[in-house]
Amino acid sequence: MAQRVRKAVLPVAGLGTRFLPATKVIPKEMIPVIDKPVVQYAIEEARAAGIEEFIFVSAMGKEAIAYQFQPQAQLEHLLSEKGKTAELKLIRDINLPAGKLHTVIQGDPLGLGHAVWCAKEIVGNEPFAVMLPDDMVLSDVPCLKQLIDAHAKVGGHVVAVEDVPRDQTNRYGVLDVTSEEGRLAKAKGLIEKPAPEKAPSTLAIIGRYILDPIVFEELDKQTRGAGNEIQLTDALSRTIGRVPFHGYRFEGKRYDCGTRVGFVEANVAFGLAHPEMGPRLRPLLEKLLKN
Ligand code: G1P
Predict the structure, then answer these.
(1) What is the SS3 assignment for 27?
(2) At 48, which CATH number?
């Protein structure tokens, strides 16, 4: 039985240049999908998966992200005085317990591997989750919970994967698969952003990982890879053989909020799935499409 996963690392240091001018002042992760900032979906998914401690790898000017999950005494006081109990509950429910939320600053944008490495001291020597908030997943069982359950059985590294069209392999970490059993794909290697003709498969990593702390031994070397960045994919690849490595074909649908069109698609999908908004939105969308 693998050690329990208690901590999640959320890299949120990116400047969000693809989303300018929206991100000139507001961190990209704070832009809402329907009624909540993108990053809140990731935190809620993590909590639903039993994660207890949260580490934002952030950058200067993005303090709002951590504030979203801390008590706002003045606002809470005001809402309680006005008897706005529903709103009060909404903002209180997302507060993380004191001491369970950490922010480390990634001074230089040296890549995803570097971002994860920045959390090394807080993670320590235990398995941990990495969540890229840009990837949003609609599923019955929270995606991270699916990974944690799989990890409890197989240990090592377990990453969420899905098949992508071959002409898109150059946007992802791609697995070199040796065998598959149910939703688990055992890999003997992985490559960051391979050209379609060089990709060993079309099984791509999406932004949910359960990692063995052995990855820090490789990240410590700060080796540069694709795009001259310190790649998480490369560090993971170099640990294969020392710990098991599996891709997990998660149940659910992923939306890529890292692109503008993907972001709009996520809004539509999460809007339709929203208990209150969905039934009102559907006829409006149908009408729009007809015209
Ligand atoms: C990162 C990882 C990549 C992974 C992807 C998932 O790439 O480097 O391996 O497949 O996230 O979203 P990025 O999207 O930051 O370029």
Answers:
(1) coil
(2) 3.90.550.10
